[in-house]
C-alpha cells in the first residue's frame, strides 16, 4: 500500500509540474502590454549636486578598496555634502583628536590597557553618559567633559536634517540614536576598540563583545 501511495504522490507532483510549465509557457507567449517606463529627472545640474557626487565617489573608493575605510571620514563626507562642502575637515578632525586625547588621559588615569576591549567600551559609554574629568598633562589644569543628552526636539530630522548629524552632536552635546552611535563608533575606531553599529527599525545602536572566551556551548 505504501508503494502505491508513493507512486500516486509522484504522479500528482509530475502533473502539477507539467501544469506549471504549461502556464509559464502560455504567459511568455502573451503580448507585453502596459509596460511602465520611468523617466526620472536628473538633478546633476542642481545646486550642491556635485558635492554629493564627490562624496559618493570617495565613499565608493573605500568600498572598493581604493582608499582606507574610515568611519570618521565617511561621516564627514556625508555631512559636508549636505553643507555643500562648507565644513572644515581640519576643524572636525581636531575636535575628535581632542576627545581621543581626553579618553587616553582617562585611560592612563584608570590604568586601562589598550587591548582591554571591555574596559575601552565601558570608558566610551561613560564618556558619553557621565561626567568625567582628567588633568591636562600639558597645563596641569582639570578638564571636565559633561555627558551627551538626547535631543527630543525633531529627533527624526523632519524639519531640520542636521539634527541627525555627528557634527551637531559634537558642537552641542545633544544628539539622538543616529548621531550618538556614530560618534561612539568613530571614537572606538580611533582608540582601537572593537564595537559594531547595529540597526533596527528607526534605531541605531552599538554592540560589542565583552569577552573573547568561549562558553561551554562552544560559541563566543
Entry summary:
The protein contains seven helices and six strands; from the N terminus they run αααααβββαβαββ. It is mostly helical and 220 residues long. It is elongated, with a radius of gyration of 27 Å.
Task: Give the overall silhouette.
Answer: elongated
Overall average pLDDT: 86
Strand and helix order:
HHHHHEEEHEHEE
Rounded Rg: 27 Å
Helix content: 40-55%
> How many H/I helices?
7
Work out the number of β strands: 6
Helix/strand-derived category reads mainly alpha
Largest sheet: 2 strands, antiparallel
**First and last CA, distance:** 51 Å
Query: Which regions are unreliable across 5 or more consecutive residues at pLDDT < 50?
Result: 213-220
Strand portion: 5-15%
Strand order of the largest sheet: 1-2
Explain what you see.
The chain has 220 residues and is mostly helical. Among the domains are: 40 residues, no CATH class; 111 residues, no CATH class. Helix content is 50%, strand content 10%. It is built from seven helices and six strands, in the order αααααβββαβαββ. The chain has a two-stranded antiparallel sheet. A two-stranded parallel ribbon has the order 3-4. Strands 5-6 form a two-stranded antiparallel sheet. α6 links the parallel β3 and β4. α2 packs antiparallel against α3, α5 crosses α7 and α6 crosses α7. The longest helix is centred in the N-terminal third of the chain and has 28 residues. The two termini are 51 Å apart.
Amino acid at each position: 500500500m505504501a508503494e502505491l501511495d508513493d507512486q500516486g504522490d509522484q504522479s500528482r507532483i509530475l502533473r502539477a509540474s507539467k501544469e506549471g510549465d504549461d502556464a509559464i509557457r502560455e504567459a511568455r507567449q502573451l503580448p507585453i502590454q502596459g509596460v511602465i517606463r520611468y523617466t526620472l529627472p536628473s538633478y546633476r545640474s542642481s545646486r550642491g549636486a556635485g558635492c554629493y557626487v564627490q562624496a559618493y565617489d570617495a565613499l565608493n573608493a573605500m568600498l572598493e578598496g581604493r582608499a582606507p575605510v574610515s568611519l570618521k571620514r565617511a561621516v564627514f563626507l556625508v555631512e559636508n555634502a549636505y553643507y555643500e562642502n562648507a565644513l572644515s575637515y581640519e576643524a572636525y578632525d581636531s575636535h575628535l583628536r581632542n576627545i581621543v586625547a581626553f579618553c587616553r588621559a582617562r585611560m592612563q588615569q584608570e590604568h586601562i590597557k589598550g587591548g582591554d576591549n571591555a574596559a575601552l567600551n565601558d570608558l566610551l559609554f561613560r564618556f558619553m553618559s557621565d561626567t568625567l574629568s582628567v588633568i591636562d598633562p600639558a597645563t596641569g589644569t582639570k578638564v571636565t567633559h559633561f555627558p551627551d543628552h538626547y535631543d527630543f526636539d525633531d529627533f527624526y530630522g523632519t524639519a531640520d536634517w542636521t539634527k541627525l548629524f555627528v557634527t551637531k552632536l559634537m558642537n552641542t552635546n545633544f544628539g539622538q540614536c543616529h548621531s550618538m552611535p556614530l560618534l561612539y563608533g568613530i571614537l572606538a575606531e580611533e582608540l582601537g576598540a572593537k564595537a559594531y553599529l547595529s540597526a533596527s527599525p528607526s534605531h541605531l545602536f552599538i554592540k560589542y563583545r565583552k569577552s573573547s572566551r568561549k562558553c561551554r556551548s562552544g560559541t563566543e
